[in-house]
Amino acid sequence: xxxxxxxVTRRRAAKQRRTPYLVIAAIAAAVLVALVVALAxxxxxxxxxxxxxxxxxxATTGTVTVSGSPLPQLTDPADDPAVGMTLPTLEGHDQSxxxxxxxxxxRPTMIVFVAHWCxxxxxxxxxxxxxxxxxxxxxxVDLVSVSTAIDASRPNYPPDAWLADEGWTAPVLVDSxxxxxxxxxxxxxxxxxxxxxxxxxxxxxxxxxxxxxxxxIASTLVQPATGG
Length: 228
Hints:
This protein has 228 residues and is α/β, with parallel strands linked by helices. It folds into two domains: 1-55; 65-219, Glutaredoxin (3-Layer(aba) Sandwich). It contains five helices and eight strands, in the order αββββαβαβαββα.
């Protein structure tokens, strides 16, 4: 065999020996690429699933739908033009996300509007709850509440945790963007509205109230007994 023929033979043999390694390397590279793609896709799907499954917290988000004419803003409780007007119906959801409506439902109702960051509300909520616990709320009169002006950047957030800590038992309508508050003419917190069984406004007032004042509001809603 000539020297050039031997050289060619050696190069062919070396090439044949390298071929399996090249094939293995190519397969490994393809597997690696596929793995990276799969992980990327999987990560994306996971993120989407987390986003889709998370959703907004019903205790801190929610816009109330208002039906009916809004009440004028309260300026003087002793001379309130809203007295005798019909409270606009407020429809939304409570802190668990369940549907909730405040309006004429055949029962006289006291409504209290509170904001989690309001120091006056923070002092008034336990007063109202103790009044309820002590039997201050008359039979046949309901007490409902509205959590309004919700702001994660302000103190005492979230409002549901605060109210739970206070042992709050009244149903809570979530009014995160003040839609309900504006519809009832709220000027300050806490804010109270009393309506009769037909949804007519009997009284509005704001500020921290004593239990005697709460008794006075409730007494305006107690329907006199009819003779048999």
